[in-house]
Amino acid sequence: MPAFPFSLNDPIQHHGPLPKISDVVIIGGGVIGVSAALFLAKRKISVTLIEKGRIAAEQSSRNWGWIRKQGRDADELPIVIEACRLWQELAAECGEDIGLNRTGVTYLANSDKQMAGFESFMKLASAYDLDTRLLDSGQTASLFKGMSRRFAGSMTTPSDMRAEPWLAVPALARLAARLGVTIIENCAARTLDLSSGKVSGVWTEAGRIETSTVLVAGGAWSSLFLRNHGVSIPQLAVRATVAATEPMAEIHAGAAAGADVAFRRRQDGGYTLAPGSHRLYLGPDAFRHATKYLPALVAHPFGTRYSPAAPEFYPDSWSTPRSWTADAESPFERMRVLNPAPEQSSLDAISRNFKRLFPQFQTVRLKATWAGMIDAMPDIVPIVDRVEAVTGLFVATGMSGHGFGIGPGIGRVVSDLIQGNAIGHNLNRFRLSRFTDGSRIRPGPAI
């Protein structure tokens, strides 16, 4: 069976030479870094985006492909509403088919208690005039063809969208390049060059770029990079297993999730399937930040399973260095692409639970399986902020499994944050200092 559908053997699309100077340097070629670069370029700001491996080769192309307003944290919702509009605009600007379709997202409820939980989001949906609605058991059954069991009900948002991540983010990168962004793949940022507490450049494996402004948008690698400069963020990464089926009869045109399985229709006529849990590798950062994660553990006790150690060279592996110099090989060069193996027990559960829910499929043929590392924060909302201790340093990371859908919105926000423009949204919930100023950790919706 083929692995992850994004081929790491494809020719590199974006390569040198390294510029000597750039207004802004972005570290990380996922959806957040690419989107920020794109919006900065629209303002005629010179941008260099450096990616240690390949554009979107990690979680930005391994996610479920949902673009949803439904179930969002209250402080994320205004940004994701903007992101939904931007996805449609950018898809048109790209001139490529990225599989963007407005087919809806549905959450299935096993119990009346879950339905009551959905009602709390309905208040927020009403405040923002969303088309979200609650469905009873019969209405829920009518959404899906051949579903074997009756649910207590569901919550659905018909205007929510889906897209193909491994098509969408590279397409945005090509658009950014056409707008003047210099993108260099297979080029790791090693360290910042600091002068009197200010950014003066970035040291990469290919040399130095002079700049006064750096955005760290490195996903699961952000904490490791920042820690080398004395900036601590309580970021961890959890492994999620995903599978794609061969083309099959349509049971639902959109995306849906229950307690045991999540699924969405794909552009190729198959379904992307995922289980209801993730795995956390226990490393130095996991123990260092454990107390900050207790509120999320209490709120969502069954969503994460644990392993005693990460594989070699992973961001929170026991053997991964926590400090290095600009003239030495960095951890980012030792692992160009974080490519975890899918978990066989999760794949078995995916197929079993999907077939149990839709028994008309005697077999579910998987055309590809993969896993990704989701960068998470203790309150399940990101950091989007400037680093006060280092002038010119900005961070946008810890999207907690929400990054693909909200990506263009965060990119636009970070672009204006860097420029000192009005943001248009309240970013207080996403400030870096919330983990050190005594604020109570308030978990958002689960990953």
How are the SSEs ordered, and which strands pair?
Elements: E1 24-27, H1 31-42, E2 47-50, H2 59-62, E3 66-67, H3 77-94, E4 101-102, E5 105-109, H4 112-127, E6 133-136, H5 137-143, E7 153-157, E8 161-162, H6 165-178, E9 182-184, E10 189-195, E11 198-204, E12 207-210, E13 214-216, H7 222-227, E14 236-245, E15 255-257, E16 261-265, E17 271-275, E18 278-281, H8 284-288, H9 294-299, E19 304-307, H10 331-334, H11 344-357, E20 366-376, E21 383-386, E22 393-397, H12 403-419
Parallel strand pairs: 1-2, 1-13, 2-9, 5-15, 13-22, 18-19
Antiparallel strand pairs: 3-8, 4-8, 5-7, 6-7, 10-11, 11-12, 14-17, 14-18, 14-20, 15-16, 16-17, 21-22
CATH class of the largest domain: Alpha Beta
Could you say what the CATH architecture of the largest domain is? 3-Layer(bba) Sandwich
Largest sheet: 10 strands, mixed
List the domain count as a whole number.
2
Oligomer designation: single chain
Strand content: 15-25%
Rounded to an integer in angstroms, the radius of gyration calculated over CA atoms is 21 Å
Query: Which term fits the overall shape?
Result: globular
Count up the helices. Answer: 12
SSE class:
alpha/beta
| Number of β-strand runs | 22
Kindly report how far apart the N and C termini lie: 28 Å
Low-confidence stretches: none
Approximate helicity band: 25-40%
| Average pLDDT, all residues | 94
CATH homologous superfamily name of the largest domain? FAD/NAD(P)-binding domain
Could you say what the CATH topology of the largest domain is called? FAD/NAD(P)-binding domain
